[in-house]
């Protein structure tokens, strides 16, 4: 159970950091009147959202691996 918790906590911490960093680009967007600038800022923020999605997928795969009780790759050598 401890392996699940550490995986989830690490994913949450990194997701929060990434979302805060991405919001630093998103917050100034509300004061901009130009729609082209808003579109550019949204395009800049999309990779941060994709990165959080990748973190969640990685967490899912890691939990699935822990459930299968596979040893780490390094222990095979």
Automatic annotation (TrEMBL):
This chain's protein is named Putative membrane protein
Q: Which organism is it from?
A: Clostridium sporogenes
Report the superkingdom from the record. Bacteria
Spans traversing the lipid bilayer: 7-27, 39-60
The opening ranks of the lineage are: Bacteria, Bacillati, Bacillota, Clostridia, Eubacteriales
* UniProt KW keywords: Membrane, Transmembrane, Transmembrane helix
């Amino acid at each position: 159970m401890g392996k699940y918790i550490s995986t989830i906590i690490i994913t949450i911490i990194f997701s929060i950091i990434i979302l805060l960093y991405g919001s630093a680009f998103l917050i100034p967007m509300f004061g901009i009147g130009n729609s082209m600038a808003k579109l550019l800022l949204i395009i800049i923020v999309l990779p941060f959202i994709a990165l959080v999605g990748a973190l969640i997928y990685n967490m899912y795969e890691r939990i699935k691996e822990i459930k299968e009780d596979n040893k780490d790759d390094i222990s095979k050598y």
